[in-house]
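name: query_chain
kind: protein
chains: 1
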Amino acid sequence: MIGILLGSYTYEWVEAGIWLVGAAGMIGIACLDGLLRKVPVRKKTQEKADPLAIVKDRSYRRKKNLFLAAMLTLLSGAALSGMQLQSTAVVWPQVEKTWQAKVEDRNKLYEDGVQATVSIAEGIYKGCRVRIHLKGTDTTRLTPGLNVKLHTTIRTPQNTGNPDEFDYRFYLLTHGISGVGYCGSTQWEIQPHKGSIPSLSLKDRIRSYRYSMEETYRHYFHGEIYALLSAMTLGDKTFIQPEVRQLFSETGASHVLALSGLHLGILFGLFLWVIRRWGQKRPIICLLTILALFSLWTYVIVCGESQSLVRAATMFSMMLTAQCIQSRMKGLQNITVCSLILLAASPLSLYDVGFQLSVAAVCGISLFNEYFRKKFPILNPNSFSYQPLPKRSSCFNFIGWMYALSRSLCRKTRQALSKWAVELFVLSASAQLATAPFVLYYFHVFSPIAIVSNFFVIPLTTMALLLSVLFFVLPFFQGIVAPVLSWTLATLLNGLQAFTAIPGVCWHLYPSLPTILFATCSVAFLLCFFALRDHRKLLWSAVALSVCCASVLIDNRPNRVKPHIEVYQTGRVTNIHFVTSARRSYLLSSVSKDSATHSLRYVRDTYWAKNKWADPLYLPYQWQNEEIRRRNDVVTFGQMTMVWLHRQISTSYNPQHAKSIGLLVISRGCWNTPEEILSFYRPTHIVLDVTLPQKQRQRLRDVFRQYGLQVYDKVAHIELLEN
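structure:
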């Protein structure tokens, strides 16, 4: 992990070959040390000490080998992460040209287009992966393996720069995406194949089967049921409404929408039951294991090979293989080996939130589950003893035998349900306890009802996945399975809506990183105290809890906001935020109020909520109060005057003296030269909006800086006014 972090933060100025040379040096040192140990030691006199005697010390050699292994692992991680980032970070030509590409996958489907991942098929950029947005009606025919011709400008991914916003650029780099682009309906076309039959690979054919499954879903399901089923079985969350996403998030059931270990775990349990049911001999067990592995990885390829599915499939494959060879591997050993394999294949998976949550959940289940099983004997499967039925000696006690049978069945059912409920509770509590720090840090949401909601969500999810398997395995009974599947998903949605009606079902918290670390240490100390009964740890637990409470109080203290101005970058929309206090602010936007609210949804849910800011007031063209005044494109905020240029300045009227202003915002639509702008206004600060074309922005920036003006180019958070 340290090596991956080192390589990812130094890849821009340190070549990956340097880390490879260091790793090779560690290997050379280890080999040289092994050769030296084989050299016989000469006999020494008693007066002179043996200089190589320390080498013979086992503890020294163990420490030395551990140090060499640690350095080798660190340098290898730095080399692998640096090589992946350097190969992905491509400098694209900022010109519009024609590209030949091959479709890898169709990510999202819109009403007027599609978002797809393509790989460049020619030139020096051959093999580079690009995420491109294609407009037009032919997007439904876009399947993996097809060749397309694109006429567009491919750019390096860039972040908007808004505070506390998702790092989209690094997200694409970690997923191997080097560039982004946009094509209109007339700027792309599907290339015809050379032969009569398209020469698609087996992998592309398997991926194409996913779209036929989507068409089958559209024939039987509609609306929210179709969107939910596509997300749960195929990983396509395009058509899920924001209200449904929020519903699952508030109840702690977001893992149902994302294909992960839960979904593969249900299929894995089905395969495991088949192996245990019909696998009595070693050849049959091996054959069933091979079929199960083939089915798992085929399903992963069909669903797009997301990192969460690849992680789960790798872990389950190791478990199936270990069972086939009759090897016992514990959960921590399994997740350790699986993590090493995945990080060696893709080092940047370390930054994936799903990877961190998966590792934390499995580690929590492995640790806490064993602890709870030792503390509570009811969780041991051997604790459930079933009494045998009395033997029927004659036909006269048939009624008594049936009564005993019913009692035995009720007892078995009751005990099985109790065991299932307790195990599900322990697993949910362990997973939620282990993943709580990561969920709070990334998503700022904590759902205390998640443990209870899993008793409702997991059985319905299991039923829905098994019904979906029957839906495709038995195509002649799709008309019978479809209504049952629709009822299951509708019940799931209605149940989650009922859970959201409970007060305090979801907590929105924004703790700092030190607070999360202190809270994690406090919980760890408390668990150690209760597990080991060591009263000496009680003092450290009290200290950790005190520090944690103090950190929470510091995080929740009232924020003192100074009057300032902020400019947000939201695509092609200009948003200027005038902040007076945490409870009162004003928003100036180039679009309507509803469109501005939609464009700023991420800023609202993260930055504003974190600082406990209320929603701003939308400024009309004419507005005036004691704090702010607007007259068309001129805004007076405190002692500062701001002018927003989004149209051409008339050059017929040339004032004698330029007007002194505090802030000048230049947006798309103003085509005046820098000299013409400075003849009208003499600003202190200049903001070049994101909507400006690249050439115009560069020219304005260079000329304004020659005049010694403060220019903000693509800066989202700017504090300009301090009273």
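note: The radius of gyration is 32 Å.
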